[in-house]
Fold this sequence. Notes:
The chain is an alpha/beta fold. About 35% of the residues lie in helices and about 20% in strands.
Amino acid sequence: xxxxxxxxxxxxxxxxxxxxxxxxxxxxxxxxxxxxxxxxxxxxxxxxxxxxxxxxxxxxxxxxxxxxxxxxxxxxxxxxxxxxxxxxxxxxxxxxxxxxxxxxxxxxxxxxxxxxxxxxxxxxxxxxxxxxxxxxxxxxxxxxxxxxxxxxxxxxxxxxxxxxxxxxxxxxxxxxxxxxxx
Length: 182
């Protein structure tokens, strides 16, 4: 059993392998014996990088996009940032999604979480759609990338109205979170 445990097999698999060899061993007994001999390997929780830092002193705008009935494209854009686990490091992906069509209209990927990442995705969305001023509402979480001075200034340059989620509420930005899940 020690040789099997050194191969990092789970206690249930070890019980199956022992029964194939003719040993009568319940998985509960294997677990108890492995625990007594200190052969259980403790799983380390994977490292997940933080993508949102909402504890900052930048200006937060209220969420007025809740309950908005969408009838056409370019009424509500939602934005979010996630990470992509690569072989040796993490990359961060920022997207801008049209909430009506659920199409990604802007994206950027980089190995840093600076505001330039989100701004690059926003610039791609503006170049692709060329929205009319004061028609688009831009919704995001309260991350420092979206609240810092550069991002709202870029939104104002294009006549886009910013909105942000409530504190600790991922449901306000559910469309972007749903896309990031896939």
